[in-house]
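User: Before I run my own analysis I want an independent prediction to cross-check against. Here's the chain; please return only the structure tokens and, at the end, one sentence I can use as a sanity check.
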Amino acid sequence: MLSVYDVYSFKIRRGGYVYEFCGEISNIISNLTMLKELSWIDGQTRAILIQFSMYNANVNLFIFVTLMVEFLPTGGIFPQAKFEAINLLVKYTSEYGMFQFICFIIYMLFVVYYTIIEIRLLIQLKWTYFKRFWSYIEWGIIICSWTALGIYIARALEQRRIETYFKQNTYINLHKAFYIHDLLIDLIAFCAFFSTIKLLCLLQVNHRISILSRTLEMAAKDLILFGSMFSVIFVAFLCLFFLLFSTALFECSSTLRTAQMLFEMMLLKFDVSDLVNVHPTIGPLVFSLYIVFVVFIIINMFISIINDKFKVVKHDPIYQIADNDIIKYMVKKFRLWTGKFMYK
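Assistant: Structure tokens:
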């Protein structure tokens, strides 16, 4: 039986039969001949997956290849291929490996420190803590970091399991290792995302960055209402383009591709000739409606909301930051980092 992670990328239900090829090429050819004589592939076959692993010792790189042929109910054949590369056998005895390990330890020490700080703030501020936007950013970084630590340990255990197979002349299934590695990369990506947003909080001492953050804060309610209105209009055009052109254009073959096409239209990076070729009248008509309603009206409304709030923040002395306020802010943050500051 194929496991879930074996067929995860191809979206096939769990099930099937596995035949392992090993040995010399002559043995493999004879095994293929035997499977053909036994009608291993028949009319009930849904798909065939061929998986094999390769290892390049010069660059310490694993490559896992999955070739798939899907037999469609209409009688056609749909081939797919996926190539995945990963560096699993990381040696911390080398200079780069030791540097990577030291950076990892320092990062986790910072995560432990900020976890304690956030727990203290949660206890002190209680329900007020959840009204702060940056609290969710902090916990996003903390949760992703601790989860990434667990996935990192799981990858190390999987790495040790793979190392034991090197002593044996057997097939090494790397699907689980690649699945764990992909999870780790995704968590690192979210950590980088939240950390980049956190950088805006640290740069609020800058006058222009402070105006930007305060402008977005003032326009938050209006932007939420605008987002709901934009979502309704966008979904309406999504249904319109999908139902009209799903059978004629590849860009409209699915709702996700249709949404991507509409965003390209919003950026004026779409070739309208495809719509004209499908239907000379309806194609340009719906394209013009989308440009008028979304690009000319909706986008200008968004710019107007931001522009109005920006004028208020820029000319209101309450939102201006003086040099003394910056110094006080820096002293306040320093006392917070040293653990000598308590929120009231």
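Sanity check: The two ends are 60 Å apart (CA to CA).
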